[in-house]
């Protein structure tokens, strides 16, 4: 548990942090969040995470506290909690008012909360995990990093009940993403991943892996692959800030490739680790 969290201008012990029962985040999930990985005290790809935070706030018409505020908040949070390898969590809601009303009754001061949690850092190639195929039941603005995650939670519970690490979600026969990850397929040495549109959250790790792949000369196609393609894939992996690059060896009863970590996936795992080392050395 963190020693200190930030809430609306105050630094508090976690158990002392309280929000109003009329906060619109509590009542309506009217808010957004962002998660930033930190390696050796250095926030990873911070400018991209903050740009996504600003996009999410703008989509909900919630006023931002500004770039300098976020930078100072993260620095202070890491210093107060003496965090080296961690995940920074920032949540912003529209704020609280005197009564429950679907439409805000006037301008509100946003509620800003931030905390940090320890993150184990690995340098190996993760063992292949199992996924399960599920219909994407979430809303149609997945590009907003909304705190409304009920659909994601229901899907994760289903996946867990199937013994899977993460669901692979699909709409109209096409793969979108996971409940808290993006997916990449590998076929004939080339990468395929869903396009950046309203049906997926454009992951920062996803973006970085695409950049690393192109630097390595691996062709990347941002076009959705189909459910019917899954049995013919050579490799499959997911990406997220907490799991980085995670190979998938099996989807329900479908074995991907030989069920191990493929060469392209392994190459990208090592490239990702190298980029972490480079950042930590700066």
From TrEMBL:
Keywords of the record: Aminotransferase, Folate biosynthesis, Pyridoxal phosphate, Transferase
Pathway the protein contributes to: Cofactor biosynthesis; tetrahydrofolate biosynthesis; 4-aminobenzoate from chorismate: step 2/2
GO molecular function, one term: 4-amino-4-deoxychorismate lyase activity
Necessary cofactors: pyridoxal 5'-phosphate
EC numbers, comma separated: 4.1.3.38
Family matches, as SUPFAM superfamilies: D-aminoacid aminotransferase-like PLP-dependent enzymes
UniProt catalytic activity: 4-amino-4-deoxychorismate = 4-aminobenzoate + pyruvate + H(+)
Leading EC class: lyase
One cellular component term from this protein's GO annotations in UniProt: cytosol
A Gene Ontology biological process term: amino acid biosynthetic process
Function: Involved in the biosynthesis of p-aminobenzoate (PABA), a precursor of tetrahydrofolate. Converts 4-amino-4-deoxychorismate into 4-aminobenzoate (PABA) and pyruvate.
Family statement drawn from the similarity comment of this UniProt entry: Belongs to the class-IV pyridoxal-phosphate-dependent aminotransferase family.
Record's protein name: Aminodeoxychorismate lyase
Lineage, uppermost ranks: Bacteria, Pseudomonadati, Pseudomonadota, Gammaproteobacteria, Alteromonadales
């Amino acid at each position: 548990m963190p020693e200190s969290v930030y809430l609306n201008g105050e630094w508090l012990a976690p158990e002392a942090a309280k929000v109003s029962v009329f906060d619109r985040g509590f009542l309506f999930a009217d808010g957004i969040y962002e998660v930033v990985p930190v390696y050796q005290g250095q926030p990873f790809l911070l400018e991209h995470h903050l740009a996504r935070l600003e996009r999410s706030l703008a989509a909900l018409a919630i006023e931002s506290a500004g770039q300098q505020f976020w930078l100072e908040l993260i620095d202070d949070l890491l210093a107060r909690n003496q965090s080296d390898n961690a995940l920074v969590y920032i949540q912003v809601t529209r704020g609280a008012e005197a009564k429950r009303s679907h439409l805000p009754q006037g301008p509100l001061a946003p509620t800003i909360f931030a905390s940090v949690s320890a993150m184990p850092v690995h340098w190996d190639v993760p063992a292949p995990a199992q996924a399960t195929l599920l219909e994407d039941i979430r809303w149609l603005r997945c590009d907003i990093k909304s705190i409304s995650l009920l659909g994601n939670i229901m899907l994760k519970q289903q996946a867990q009940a199937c013994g899977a690490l993460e669901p692979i979600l699909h709409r109209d026969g096409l793969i979108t993403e996971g409940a808290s990850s993006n997916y990449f397929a590998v076929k004939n040495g080339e990468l395929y991943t869903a396009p950046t549109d309203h049906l997926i959250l454009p992951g920062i790790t996803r973006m970085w892996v695409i950049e690393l792949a192109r630097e390595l000369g691996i062709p990347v196609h941002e076009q959705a692959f189909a459910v019917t393609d899954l049995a013919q894939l050579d490799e499959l992996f997911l990406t997220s800030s907490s799991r980085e690059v995670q190979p998938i060896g099996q989807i329900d009863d479908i074995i991907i490739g030989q069920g191990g970590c493929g060469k392209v996936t392994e190459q990208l795992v090592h490239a990702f680790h190298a980029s972490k080392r480079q950042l930590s050395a700066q």
